[in-house]
Please model this.
Amino acid sequence: MTSQNSSMRNKASIYDLRYSFKTTFAVPLALLVLLIISLTLPQIEALDRRSGMLEGGYLLFDYRNIRSEIFLIPVLLYIGGILTAVSSFNFINSTKATNVFLSMNIKRKTLLLNRFFSSAVYLFISVTVPFCINLFNTINALGYNPAILKAWLYMLFGMLACVYTAFSVTMFATVIAGNKFESCLYSVAFLSAPSVITIGVEWVMNKFLNGFICTFARAESLSSLYLDKGGLFLNTRVINPLFFFSNPNINAYNNGLINYSSYGEFNLKTLKINAAEYLPVLLWLLISAGFLFIAVRAFNRRKVENSGSNGACRPAAAFLSAIVMFGAFAVSVHNLPLKKLPTLIISIVISAVAYLVINAVVYRNKKDIVPALKKLPIGIGAVVVMSLILITGGLGYTNAVPDIDDVEVAYVTSPINDKMLFGGTRVSGWGSNNDGLTHITGYMEMTGGFTSENDIREILSLHESITEAELTDQEMDFCIIYRLKSGKTVRRGFRYLSDENIKQALSLANSDYCRDVVKTKFMATDKELDELYGVPGEKEAEEGDVFSVYKKDIWSKNYSKNRWIFKYTNANTYYLYNKNGEKSEKPLSDMLTEEDYTQFVGCLYEDFQKSNLSERYLPSKKVIGIISLSSEKEITHFEDVWFQNNSFNHFAVVITEDMKSTLKYLNNKDMIKYFDNTKEFAEVKIMPFSDAKTKVYNYTYEEKLGRLFCMEINAESDTNMVESNYKEDILKDYTRFTDKAKINELYDASYQFAYVEDEGYIAEYVFTDGSTVRLYIPSSYENLIKNY
Amino acid sequence: MIEARSITKRYGDFTAIEDITLTVGPSSIYGLAGYNGAGKTTLIKTLAGIYKPESGGAYIDGQNTFDNNTVRDRLFYVPDELFFLPYATMDTMAKFYRGYYPDFSAKRYEKLKKVFELNGSKRLRSFSKGMKRQAEIIFALSVKPTVILLDESFDGLDPQKRSIVKELLLEYIAESEVSILISSHNLSELSDVSDHIGLIKGKALIVDSPTDDISERYRRFCVVFDKEINADIFENIDRKGLKIIGKGAQLIASEDLENIRDSLNQMNPVSVEENTLSLEEIFLFEMEDSTYDFSEFFNEE
Model:
């Protein structure tokens, strides 16, 4: 009898498994179709289109053509995982269904595990099938290579970890929730909690804490978070269920699998996947198993009478409320363009409203909301305490400036990107570092290290004045890093810099370090350079290093008999520019011999030595023109993080009227003509710079300059067309001059900005061919304008 | 045999049933009565092993039913709110139950379909409430359980189908040692089919008795005197209900009937009449906590 009963029970369990397979396929099937559409079809199209170009490359996905889908695929996986769990375990929250399933001859554990198993199998198929097709296509097109298989497996496991994480977390949420809506809410809350907390804390820190402990650049948007190396969010990504597989530094993800087209032929070395890169994947597969375990336990103990009820699981409802409340607080703090106190007060009100709304949504009746409301003061207290701690600089911790005797070396970010000088020209567009390198690695441009006592004192003084300054709305990311003699590192990031702070930072161009760099880079001999930088080839990065290709290129180029500035930079991109942003027809390399370069650099160095180097940013003399020296980046390694050393690698030399040697040299070579304006003026529109600046309120300092100048700086007509909207917006209340002689006089006094002060003017010169250029007129020429 | 042993079930702070003990023996039908919200469904779901009680337990043949598949293959629960698979027909639901209950008798299922004149290939969604109940009862009898729990299962059935169901249940217990528990508001229906009656009131089981005994236990005494009387004269009599109209009095008692009878006779009444109560009357008598004066109910002045 007993064995007969046991056999009956086994039959029931087997039937339940079959029933689970019959009823859980719908969402995974939809996911399979969507993945084929977004992942496989683009690859097939890409293979069709560019089959002749694939030799030597490895293409699992075509990054260029499915770029948006690369972000879409994880989103699909998470939504697919959530919906699969909600539909598979739907019976838990249905009173009618539990009446049947929980009174039948099958244990709760078996019911749950059967549905888990069938859903997990379907999800596996949904994700694996498109990947298999992609693998087949890749091997078919490019030939088999074990590296492809390794990378494929890595991506597959990563994507499976994503889908299983969403699925198992939602399964747990469904088991503790009272209804379907709640299970979705709790699931989203659990999955997004680490992101909400880390991004929220960063946002609140940004607002309330000027000097914060930074790693490297902080994030402002999802895309920059993705690219960035630093920040709380990025540093906790491994334990973040939504972003553990979004590490942009994973070689395979960036290069091996998806990035065939961006950098030409694919490099096998970059396909290498470190064992460490599997860790987040394995970790989250394990966590998914952990969620299954606790879901089974929770289901065994579940009070079935909660099915169909609202807010039955008080801890989950409280967690959801806390996440929503803090999220609303952080979003509000991040977006309110107000001072700290009003921001804090309004954000508390908004977060309290969010708390009330989410509790109303969860409980849906007054009786249950009232006890929840009693906990609101706890939430408000928590955000107030957190804000106060931040407002006081982490109780004084983040505003602390090291002692000069303790500092060994210091690094700072360049307060103004050199490229800004050419923002509107074709040299580099505003806001787009399309050199690839920056985008892949996300390093921050640092200058350093400053080691002399004078330099360190200057930096400490700058640090102190930043921490003491009243916060302004002038946003500018700025970072100071000290390596102390004790071996420790102190990193401080700053969000807001006053005009005085920026000027002080710019004056670091006069530091011993910068002067030394100028000297070295302009005047050092080949031998000295080799001693400094090593013999070409010796410093190649290790195999598999993401920079290997670039470093190798830099070091293997043969520019002997040239100074560093030409030796380690790409001389054929040097041009002369006039103030309209129009460049010489040929690069310097076509106009000068190698011997000429040496002389030319000598002249530049002579002038640099005589002048104050901050003239690069704040020229007090008339600007004649600009020489753009774009170059390969020098990449340095600091504390396991690669970053670009910005010192004179990619910069523009502003040629002012006092740079006699350079001007004489250019005159002799008949190159000074490239600085001339070749166009005829129609009119000039002028307005105070401070007025124009208010029109671009709420942008960072660099963005402001970009919007005011870079958009319009180029006299080429197509640029004008593209950016005409900005033109109309910003220069609305201008003063117009049409007298040609006067315009010429004003034009002589104008220059491209690098750093501009509020006192000056913004001038838009309109040429007879319809093109325009925007330049800055310093306040010292105020009389010239007022006399008109 | 199914037993409730001191079951207490709470929903948060609210106690739905408290310390309920009952037994449904083999070849027995237990009728469970009680007001709406008295806790009948809670008790049945606890007996079915769906709810876990805060204390006590439900047992089938001595084994706890909560999450216990070793005993629940002998149990079938017909809930008040019926569950059918989406777009299911009777035949697909039969297939579903056959999967979970390997003893499911297809032969019996076909026969019962004919008895109730139900179309097995028609979608259950299109069935009336009564037809859905009939279908569920067919499934319950087809899986051949030894314990059947029927929650308000006569609701929505026409008199003919009700009669068929009763006969089928009686036949089924006669044929095998089945324990059936039926909850209903309809006492006369329960008295027709049950051999045992339980009454839930105020979270507790206040009546738990064989159906035959229950009528015997309650008596209505109608006493007539030759002069007008007041309630004081019945002070020493252990009675539950008392109504005085002029020279007459009506009282209901359930215990110590012999003594009551003697006490009434000693009052020298003109006449003493003694009647048994119907189950309906017992139900109303036991359930009435407060009595409204309905004559005043609509008088708004």
Observations:
- The interface with chain A takes residues 11, 45, 48-52, 67-70, 72-77, 79, 81-83, 96, 99-103, 149 of chain B (CB under 8 Å).
- The radius of gyration of chain B is 23 Å.
